[in-house]
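Input (Amino acid transporter transmembrane domain-containing protein):
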Amino acid sequence: MDHDEIVQSRYADANSDKKAQDVKQAEDSEKMAQEEAIAPQFSRGAPFGEVVGEDYVKSIWALGIIEIFIYTLTGALIYAFVGQEVRSPALLSAGPTVSKVAFGVALPVIFISGSINTTVVGRYIHGRMYKDSIVRYINTKMGWITWLALITVITVIAWIIAEAIPFFSELLSISSSLFISGFTFYFPAIMWFMLIKEGKWNAKENLLKSAGNGLAFVIGIVVLVCGTYASIEEINLKFRNGTVSSPFSCAPLA
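Output:
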């Protein structure tokens, strides 16, 4: 084997190793991004303060138990019948015809879940805008006008964001990593240590709560850092492979 053949062989081996490394990194990023998509499912209690503040604790317990049961059962069934190649949203894995029917049946629930988030944001902004005015109670002409206008603006902004960014799972993962990681994990932990805790953190009566909140804080930071990095890597990979659709388009990829 002459010098040129040796160089070409080494170059081919280097390219092969580089491709294998890229594939491994892409798989790791995809796994982390998929794990980040789970985080929003445990943030559903955030609107409860605005909706059922008087029964907040009972509502959180009920929500947590029901969520864990439903998501565990649903995930197990989807994995059993679909396998690892689950699309996002998962209804797309059922095929074009069945997924269209399923989305049609699910439309009421989709509208309801979206309206809850919109209502929470709208109530917060509306209450701040008219803090010392009767308009804040909405049941006036000006109250209804400003309320409907505000809800319309919020809905349009949400729609533009959802349609302008052509990757659903990664958008969900980035929002989970940057925002939900805080409001679900490390913000509550910080609040407990700084505002709610009575006595020293290492006191006998606080040890269990301190451990739980400390663990929640660590999980939140891991989700924030690793999740954001994995989501960005996943987006870069999709752009390199040309598997990103166009903004404001419902056309499937070729």
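Residues 166-239 form one domain.
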